[in-house]
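Cont'd.
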Amino acid sequence: MNGPLSSATIIAALVLAVWYLLRSALDRAPGRNDLIAAGVLSLLVLVLVAVAAIGLATGTEVADIGTFAGYLITTVAFVPTAGYLAVMEPTRWGSLTLGIGCLIIPVLVLRLQQIASVTGA
Amino acid sequence: MPDKNPTEATTRPRDAALGSGLGRVLLLVYGVFALSASARALVQITTHFDEAPLAYLLSGFAGLVYVAATVGLARGGSTGRLIALVSCTIELVGVLAIGTLTVVDSVDFPDATVWSNFGSGYGYVPLVLPFIGLWWIWRHKPEKAQ
């Protein structure tokens, strides 16, 4: 959970968040490229979550497995949910929705790392 | 989405639906809090309820308030607006009351809720959110029949 993949996901999410917040501040609706970028971030998060899930299945010990699994599901669904809301909102608020979605991803990843570091072993 | 009509206004009219514009951003944020507060309470209540029953019941209550606010915003209309108005007001009172109580006397609240210390564990978003929510709902007063 605590590898370069997590760091890459956090950095990508933060960079995108700055971009979307800037777009929102400049009164721009999310464009096609913005949504593609959100899709790429979703894929990155999907890979991260898949790696963590495989780790769980192959015997990594996590103390609070229910919470960890809940966070995994939330994390993987999060950017697509923000993206879905943003598609329905072709205004600056759509860009803000994507921006806030990208700001929450690092929080979720850090929480996952926190929970994973408290091993049941 | 390609910009088909660049002259189209990017802001919505004031009487647009409660769940559009900034309302949709609020919907996402309230949804996040509905999920995180409820899930937290569920874990607390199901795994170690005896340790701090009052705090955990409060946690559950906070979760339900966020769920109600989310539903109200998503539903819109006069009913949705009323649900959102009531739940945002409870949320404001709750975060101020619990925030003050936990700062003054932490004995009664040995374990944290979303509203403990004015939501400091959640970047103080729980403190700011009801103000934004109430302002948004207030701005969406239904038009009087003319």
